[in-house]
Design goal:
It contains 3 helices and 4 strands. It is of the alpha+beta class.
């Protein structure tokens, strides 16, 4: 997946985001996707130069690795997956047309990483 700046090759995709917390090397954000394209959040964040932490496909495992220190390595040990979590989703059921929403707490590994970043000033 990639970004095209013309309508000839790509499809419209819109991702709105808000910065919740800026750390030294990481930023915690919330995204609101207006369209539902494959890998949309991952592609858009990579395009603006801020790939998702530990995203091996879109470079989120490389942009921080240059630091090569134990604190950063610990981040990869704490969260062994992409730092991406869908905590809220709302849609209209395709058959019943009823509005459906799901809310899911942030997983423990994700929370542990956030707390580690705060504690270690990363």
């Amino acid at each position: 997946m990639q970004i095209f700046n013309n309508k000839k090759y790509g499809k419209l995709s819109i991702t709105k985001y808000k910065i919740l917390k800026i750390f030294n090397y990481f930023t915690l954000i919330i995204c609101n996707i207006k369209t539902g394209r494959t890998h949309q959040i991952r592609v858009h964040l990579n395009y603006i130069g801020n790939p998702i932490f530990n995203d091996k496909i879109y470079g989120g495992n490389k942009n921080i690795n240059f630091l090569k220190n134990n604190k950063i390595n610990n981040c990869f040990n704490i969260l062994k997956r992409q730092a991406l979590h869908s905590f809220y989703i709302k849609f209209k059921h395709p058959k019943t047309k009823k509005k459906i929403k799901f809310i899911k707490k942030i997983p423990k590994d994700f929370s542990k990483l956030i707390n580690y970043l705060k504690k270690n000033n990363l």
